[in-house]
């Protein structure tokens, strides 16, 4: 834990999930982003338009899978199938995630804490992503 003086910040406006950053190096906030996910034990495969709750750090946000780009080999990164109709359990895939509100996210290589998330549905974790 680090204590950082936040000059000019109204402490009453800071909430869970608030990200403070250097103005010269702002954190990216997006309503839509590409992500690589690994599906876990799914009852049904993930399909286009699938709705879930995304957890990034302490923030939870309703999301939709707006594009299913491809499935990939977890070890080599080789594309196995482009534009799959569904993503079954224990599969690595590249998808577009669309949020209702802007969420602070970064590429995993830039910031590990803001570069990973989980997707949950019905109280179960269904996928993890970067």
Automatic annotation (TrEMBL):
Protein name: GTP-eEF1A C-terminal domain-containing protein
Coiled-coil residue spans: none
Lineage, broadest ranks: Eukaryota, Cryptophyceae, Cryptomonadales, Cryptomonadaceae, Cryptomonas
Keyword Transmembrane: no
CDD domains named among the record's database cross-references: HBS1_C_III (cd04093)
Alphabetical UniProt keywords: GTP-binding, Nucleotide-binding
Domain GTP-eEF1A C-terminal: 32-129
InterPro entries for the chain: GTP-eEF1A_C, TRAFAC_GTPase_members, Transl_elong_EF1A/Init_IF2_C
A Pfam family that the UniProt record links to this protein: GTP-eEF1A_C
GO molecular function: GTP binding
């Amino acid at each position: 834990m680090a204590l950082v003086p936040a000059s000019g910040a109204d402490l009453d406006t800071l909430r869970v999930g608030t990200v403070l950053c250097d103005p010269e190096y702002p954190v990216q906030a997006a309503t839509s982003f590409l992500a690589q996910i690994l599906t876990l034990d799914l009852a049904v495969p993930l399909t286009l338009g699938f709705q879930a709750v995304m957890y990034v750090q302490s923030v939870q946000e309703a999301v939709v899978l707006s594009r299913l780009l491809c499935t990939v080999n977890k070890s080599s990164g080789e594309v196995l199938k482009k534009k799959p109709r569904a993503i079954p359990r224990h599969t690595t895939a590249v998808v577009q995630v669309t949020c209702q509100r802007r969420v602070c996210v970064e590429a995993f290589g830039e910031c590990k804490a803001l570069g990973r998330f989980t997707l949950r549905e019905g109280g179960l974790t269904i996928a993890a992503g970067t």
